[in-house]
Design a protein that fits this description.
- The complex is a heterodimer.
- Chain A is mostly helical.
- Chain A has a domain of 61 residues.
- Helix content of chain A is 83%, strand content 0%.
- The longest helix of chain A has 29 residues.
- The termini of chain A are far apart.
- Chain B has one domain.
- Classes of the chains: A mainly alpha, B mainly alpha.
Chain lengths: 95, 128
């Protein structure tokens, strides 16, 4: 059985690589589209992946200060998704 | 085996679960065929992926001795807002006709988000 510390650092490395690959795939979907719905969806996924990267950074450094960053990014991500969708639907964000 | 070691193993396993579901969601977002189908894949990222990663963060805080339940805030916020943004994005898909078969409007009504086509019957009391 692998010692716990080695297993944790291995899992952290795997998670960083996997979330980075996911971010890249979402970025490719953001570029190739084809519709504006897909682009909004890709941006939403990228926000969630960014939260995941920040959480992983907090785990790897052993600090708790990244929590507020992740919370604010989660709130702004939802608001920006709704704003993009409103803009596509209505041509205006606040009518 | 002490509680610290068990907690460290738990953190690593939560990390692997979260990373796996994040990758599954991103591959689905990249590979699936049409817009309405692609809308399903990032649900995995939002629910299982970020949930397990935040659980890992919370557990690692408790292992280090300064744990708290603050991460539940992010989890609850993401879980509450995910259906709302998915609803908005599917409305965008219907509106831009990106979905293969947009649903028929209810009788004598039009969708509020769809543009009016030529054959559409406009209700009498609709303003302008």
């Amino acid at each position: 059985m692998i010692p716990a510390d080695e297993f944790l650092s291995l899992a952290l490395a795997i998670s960083f690589a996997t979330v980075a690959v996911s971010q890249l795939l979402a970025m490719i979907r953001l570029v190739i589209g084809p519709g504006s719905g897909d682009r909004i969806l890709a941006l939403d996924t990228m926000v969630v992946n960014a939260i995941a990267l920040i959480v992983l950074l907090g785990i790897s450094q052993g600090t708790r200060i990244y929590f507020e960053v992740a919370l604010i990014i989660a709130m702004l991500g939802f608001v920006s998704t709704v704003a993009y969708a409103r803009f596509v639907l209505r041509g205006d964000i606040i009518e | 085996m002490s509680w610290d070691i068990i907690g460290t193993y738990a953190v690593a396993i939560f990390l692997l679960i979260g990373a796996f579901f994040t990758l599954v969601g991103a591959i689905g977002l990249f590979r699936l065929s049409d817009a309405m189908t692609r809308l399903h894949a990032p649900t995995k990222v939002g629910t299982m992926g970020i949930g397990a990663l935040l659980l890992a963060s919370m557990t690692s805080g408790f292992v280090a001795g300064n744990g708290s339940f603050h991460e539940l805030l992010i989890m609850a916020f993401l879980f509450v807002t995910a259906p709302i943004s998915a609803n908005f994005m599917s409305k965008v898909n219907i509106h831009t006709k990106a979905s293969i078969a947009p649903p028929d409007a209810p009788d004598k009504q039009t969708w509020s988000t769809l543009v009016k086509r030529d054959g559409d019957e406009v209700p009498k009391d609709e303003p302008a």
